[in-house]
Specification:
heterodimer, A: alpha+beta, Nonspecific Lipid-transfer Protein, Chain A, about 15% strand, B: about 250 residues, two-stranded antiparallel sheet, about 25% strand, globular, binds S-adenosylmethionine
Chain lengths: ~170, ~250
């Protein structure tokens, strides 16, 4: 669900020209949180971003951080500052990481809400807040209502967290 | 080599299955949309909406909907890709495609191309499509692995495959309810509304024979896709698999 919201929001921005994805083409950027069982891969390809969860593919950049630092990034905290303070560890090209972080900050999504699934169930009023954010993003859209309906239908169906691991039977 | 396959719970000669599936959809075509709404309590619309939202399809994209039937997905994809894009609604069955054409015209949707094809043999060049979808169709295909390899071949690198299909629920309660519903109520409703008990008996059986979530995910990866993840919908009664060509 959190992947879905992020993916929708990022691709909305890409489609509306606010983000140039060319420098990130064919890159896989992995965020791993040290204190939550969460790993998110941002796969940049074919002019769009897929937000998936796949530990078996090799990533170009690995970003390790705590949940708090992750939230701070979304709130506009400077990546270089966080790097200097050793609050974030990056393996791979820092410039690529910076590009993605810029993008996440542009999305203006409340990461704490998105991650609340990992700290407990999302309750109804939080759902409202997330769709509110999407609404904000889609204000310029020719069809904001559709974008909203898409995200709301997701909650009605209530999909569980996906399992993606290649050759990893549960 | 074993040249039998399943048609619902029956074993039939592999070369006969496609014709038998055609018989089912010839028979249900005219009542298909009504039956879908009744049998799923309208939920198929939500499952499809989620599929479209997950597709990442945008203006200018080329999309192929396989086993597209009456065109629910094609209609929404057409709205997303705009005039600069292309949507192809395809199905093996002429009667279902005919219903699709009627449906689109009635809804004022134009600019969708129609192609009659078998999912196992896709008459397109390599690396053609940004997105391929198949909703409630894969379980009817005789050689699913071959169909998946074909889909992989004609997707562009970075292209996305969406498979929406009935699947397996972990919940004992849902399982019991669902078994009772599909083997007792579904064929009965098929008989009352569409005067066709056998086709709906087949549909119920074919759902049980379809690979579960993990097996299908492995099949998608085996066909060459770089990523595959799935989301359970309605407790796993339905699952959406999303594969990305690396
Ligand atoms: C249950 S309907 C689904 C229609 C539509 N996608 C929907 O979700 O409403 C299954 C469709 O699969 C088609 N089909 C069956 N076997 C096929 C094959 N081998 N290749 C392409 N289409 C096939 C049938 O003709 C039928 O229209």
């Amino acid at each position: 669900m959190q992947h879905f919201v992020l993916e929708q929001a990022l691709n909305f921005l890409i489609q509306n020209g606010d983000i140039n994805l060319k420098p990130l083409d064919q890159k896989i950027i992995r965020f791993s949180l040290k204190d939550l069982p969460l790993e998110v891969d941002f796969v940049c390809t074919n002019n769009r971003i897929f937000v998936v969860n796949d530990i078996n593919n090799v990533s170009d950049v690995d970003i390790k951080l705590t949940a708090n630092v992750f939230f701070a990034l979304f709130k506009g905290e400077d990546l270089t500052d966080l790097l200097k303070q050793d609050k974030i560890i990056i393996h791979g090209d820092v410039k690529t990481a910076q590009l993605l972080v810029d993008m996440l900050q542009a999305v203006d999504i409340d990461a704490e809400e998105i991650l609340s699934q990992y700290t407990g169930d999302i309750v109804a009023h939080e759902i409202g807040k997330i769709t509110g954010k999407i609404k904000k993003i889609t204000q310029e859209s020719s069809n904001p209502l559709e974008a909203l309906k898409d995200s709301v239908s997701n909650f009605l169906i209530n999909p569980s967290v996906s399992k993606t691991y290649k050759n990893n039977k549960h | 080599m074993d040249n039998t396959t399943h048609f619902g719970f029956k074993d039939v000669a592999t070369e006969d299955k496609q014709g038998m599936v055609r018989g089912v959809f010839d028979s249900v075509a005219s009542k298909y949309d009504l039956m879908n709404d009744v049998l799923s309590f309208g939920a198929h619309r939500l499952w499809k909406r989620y599929t479209i939202a997950s597709s990442n399809v945008k203006t200018g994209d080329k999309v192929l909907d396989i086993a597209g039937g009456t065109g629910d997905l094609a209609i929404e994809f057409r709205k997303k890709v705009g005039d600069s894009g292309q949507v192809i609604l395809s199905d093996i069955n002429a009667a279902m495609l005919g219903e699709g054409r009627k449906n689109l015209t009635n809804k004022g949707i134009f600019g969708v191309d129609f192609v009659q094809l078998n999912a196992q043999y896709l008459p397109f060049k390599d690396n053609t499509f940004d997105c391929i979808s198949i909703a409630f169709g894969l379980r009817n295909v005789t050689d699913k692995d071959q169909a998946l390899r074909e889909m992989h071949r004609i997707l562009k690198p970075g292209g996305c495959l969406l498979i929406l299909e009935f699947s397996t629920t972990d919940s004992e309660f849902l399982k019991k309810f669902y078994d009772f519903y599909s083997f007792n109520i579904m064929p009965k409703l098929g008989e009352i509304i569409a005067d066709d008990k056998d086709s709906y008996q087949y549909l119920a059986e074919s759902i049980r024979k379809h690979p579960d979530q993990e097996t299908l995910k492995d099949m998608v990866l085996e066909a060459g896709f770089g990523f595959c993840e799935y989301h359970n919908l309605s407790g796993g009664i339905v699952a959406l698999h999303k594969g990305i060509k690396a």
